[in-house]
Amino acid sequence: MEKRDALYAGKAKSVYRTDDPQRLILHFRDDTSAFDGERVESLARKGMVNNKFNAFIMGKLEAAGIPTHFDGLVSETECVVKKLEMIPVECVVRNLAAGGLVKRLGIEEGRELTPPTFELFLKNDAQHDPMINESLAETFGWASREQLARMKTLTFQVNDVLKQLFLDGGMLLVDYKLEFGMFNGEIVLGDEFSPDGCRLWDAKTREKMDKDRFRQGLGGVIEAYEEVGRRIGIEFD
């Protein structure tokens, strides 16, 4: 497959066209950002780690019957994916209270959420990804009722698979966000799944092992990412 011109550059990934109009190449860069891009740093090995982490997770989800856009790795920092018509709505599941939920509601960090919560956010950097609901998504044409229902179902299926995967590695899946798109008329999981887009804590100590280490200046960001990967069976060079 031939890599062609750049289509888009996000905060941590770049997207390239290929000679196949239905396939793209994702390049995971070493860039790390927080607070809507106000803080940006380059962390050595991050692109490689997140690329391999994402490939592993997407494989687990595919094996569980969850459709994803992932097609395969092409290098240490790149993978091939299906070209989706992205739906600009992020789906967030929270198993434990942390981050924005704690700030909004004033509840204790770490509180177990039973049942887990499900939230929607509009993917819009200029508006700081505001929280929305199904009614707003339908009214403004961001997603249809049927799409939202399918996205919710798939998001909770992901939770069932990954909560146990991480628990088997001695970790708690605190929360995560997912993005979806359309491919040949089907809702498909897109973007990535890595410690950049979820919260993971050690099950015994509750040590943070995700991007909060960068947000909160705790250090050891990539070391934590690699430890998460090793605990679930990912090998890094």
Topology:
Elements: E1 3-9, E2 13-18, E3 23-28, E4 31-34, E5 39-42, H1 46-63, E6 70-75, E7 78-82, E8 85-96, H2 100-105, E9 112-122, E10 131-132, H3 134-139, H4 145-168, E11 171-183, E12 186-189, E13 198-202, H5 212-215, H6 221-232
A few lines on this structure:
This protein has 237 residues and is of the alpha+beta class.
Number of domains: 2
- Strand-and-helix sequence, N→C? EEEEEHEEEHEEHHEEEHH
Strand content: 35-45%
* Percent in helix: 25-40%
Tell me the distance between the termini.
25 Å
Q: Tell me, what's the shape?
A: globular
> Unreliable runs, pLDDT <50, ≥5 residues?
none
What is the structural class? alpha+beta
Instruction: Give the CATH architecture of the largest domain.
Output: 2-Layer Sandwich
CATH superfamily of the largest domain: ATP-grasp fold, B domain
Number of helical stretches of at least 4 residues = 6
CATH fold type of the largest domain: D-amino Acid Aminotransferase, Chain A, domain 1
Radius of gyration, in Å, reads 17 Å
Quote the average pLDDT: 96
Tally of extended strands? 13
EC number: 6.3.2.6
Keywords: ATP-binding, Ligase, Nucleotide-binding, Purine biosynthesis
Pathway: Purine metabolism; IMP biosynthesis via de novo pathway; 5-amino-1-(5-phospho-D-ribosyl)imidazole-4-carboxamide from 5-amino-1-(5-phospho-D-ribosyl)imidazole-4-carboxylate: step 1/2
Domain SAICAR synthetase/ADE2 N-terminal: 7-231
